[in-house]
Structure formats: C-alpha cells, structure tokens
Design goal:
The chain is an alpha+beta fold and about 260 residues long. It has 2 domains: about 100 residues, Thrombin, subunit H (Beta Barrel), CATH 2.40.10.220; about 130 residues, no CATH class. Helices cover about 60% and strands about 20% of the residues. It is built from 8 helices and 6 strands; from the N terminus they run E-E-E-E-E-H-E-H-H-H-H-H-H-H. It has a 6-stranded antiparallel beta barrel. Strand 2 and strand 3 form a beta hairpin.
Length: about 260
C-alpha cells in the first residue's frame, strides 16, 4: 500500500471546521494532500485516533472529508499570536484516494495556479535584477574563496563557470565587465594578501587540487553541453516559427491575389 505521507502537499490557508462526536472545532487548514491535512490555530484538539469530518470552503462550494486524528502538533507562539489558536493536529483521510483526489480538485487547481504565479514572479524578478545578481555572485564568490577556501588558486576556475553563464544569459558585454571586475578584485586580494595564495606541496594538498580542478572541468563540460542543447532547442523553435510564418505569408499573398483578380 502506498504511503500516504509521500503524497505531495499543497500549502493553503483555508478556515475549516473539524467535527467529531463530542465537539466542533474551528481552525485553519495549512496544508493538504491526498493523504491528509494539517490543521492549525484550532480552538481545541480532538483526541488522537478520533474519527472526524473536516469541512472547508473552496471553489464550487464546501468540501467535506472524513478522517482520523493521527497526531497532535505542539502549537507555536506565532500561531497563538496570529490566530489565537491553542494547538494543531494532523488528520489522515479515511476515504479512498480517488474520492479525495476528486474532492480536492478545486484546491489543487488554486494551489497550482498560485505556485505558477510565484514561479513567474520569481523569474521576472531574476530577469529584472540579473545584472545586480551577477555582480553580487561575483563579490560573494571572491570573498568566500579568499576567506574560507584553502585551495584558492584552483578554485579560481569557478569563475570560468560564472562568466560563462553571464555570457549566455546577459550577453558578451556584461560578461566581459564581470570578468574585468573579478580580475580586479582577485588581483587586489593577491596584492595585499599574497601569502594566502601561495600553494603548498603536501601530498594531500596536491590531490585535493587535482580533485578540485577535475570537478570544475567536469562541471564546465556538463554546463556547456546543457547550454548548447538549450540553444539548439531554441533555434529549432525559431525555425519552426519561421516556417509557420512563411506558410501564413504565402497563404495571405495568395488570398490577396485572389481579391485583386476579383476586383
């Protein structure tokens, strides 16, 4: 039997009621899956193992699901401050997976739409601030390598990957500016702290340098291959769109010729 805890959980924030034989509890559904739900900010807590009916509002009306209280969760101070609830608990649905899936369809659609919106907002933010993020990554990487990494010279190969990504996503000019900025910062560190860049020659240091160099080499190869594959896909999509436009243009031209002959 499939473990219900492995079902994907959808984060929600929906007021709900949990009814048992003895009481009716008001709370909020924090996440829900095909296997169960987490109820928080509740004004009570049914005993563990009690049969309950969870009711909450969604698109198209109320959703009622029968389940069993599986575990109590100690409430957090934030939950108490935010909602005045005294505790939280989990409910495992007792109905079949197919029945639960059908009933939760409106909630799943809402959650997926929210996830897509958040992903799109994150993508737009990254695109809008890509130059600042690129510069910040360079600064953080240089500081990390110079203060935390013992094998500094070999770790400078990491910037090949960073500049390569910058060239692909930001263009040649931005990548060159990033390379110049990286060079200036590293040269400044080498000038003021040359001892930290002096390589050691113990056996362990030698093999660690070779291993690090090999890791960057493999990572660069994988990254370049992935970028080339993506570039080919984009070119194929552009060629497909071009062919469609040519077909539409040819059809439009024939249509115009017919109209001119009719005149």
């Amino acid at each position: 039997m499939k473990d219900r805890r492995k079902f994907k959980r959808w984060p929600v924030s929906i007021p709900c009621t949990v009814e048992s034989k003895d009481e009716k509890i008001i709370g909020k559904t924090r996440n829900v899956s095909l296997g169960g739900a987490l109820i928080t900010q509740a004004n009570g807590a049914p005993p563990e193992g009690a049969l309950v009916t969870v009711t909450f509002q969604a698109e198209g009306g109320q959703i009622r699901l029968k389940g069993r209280v599986m575990s109590k969760v100690i409430h957090t101070l934030w939950e108490v401050i935010e909602g005045g609830g005294i505790g939280s608990f989990g409910v495992k649905f007792e109905e079949s997976t197919e029945t639960v899936r059908e009933k939760l369809m409106p909630v799943r659609r809402t959650s997926i739409s929210r996830e897509k919106y958040l992903m799109k907002a994150l993508k737009n933010y990254l695109v809008k601030h890509s130059e600042q993020i690129f510069a910040l990554l360079i600064l953080i990487s240089v500081a990390t390598i110079n203060y935390l990494i013992p094998y500094k010279l070999v770790f400078l190969n990491f910037f090949f990957i960073l500049i390569l990504l910058g060239a692909y996503y930001l263009g040649l000019h931005k990548a060159l500016m990033g390379a110049v900025l990286t060079t200036l910062i590293v040269v400044t560190y080498v000038y003021y702290f040359p001892d930290t860049f002096m390589p050691t020659f113990t056996g362990l240091d030698l093999w660690m340098n070779v291993l690090t160099w090999s890791s960057f080499l493999i990572l660069t190869g994988a990254l370049v291959g992935r970028l080339i594959q993506r570039l080919k896909m984009e070119m194929e999509e552009a060629n497909t769109a071009k062919r469609k436009l040519e077909i539409y243009a040819h059809g439009l031209e024939e249509w115009l010729n017919v109209l001119m002959k009719m005149e």
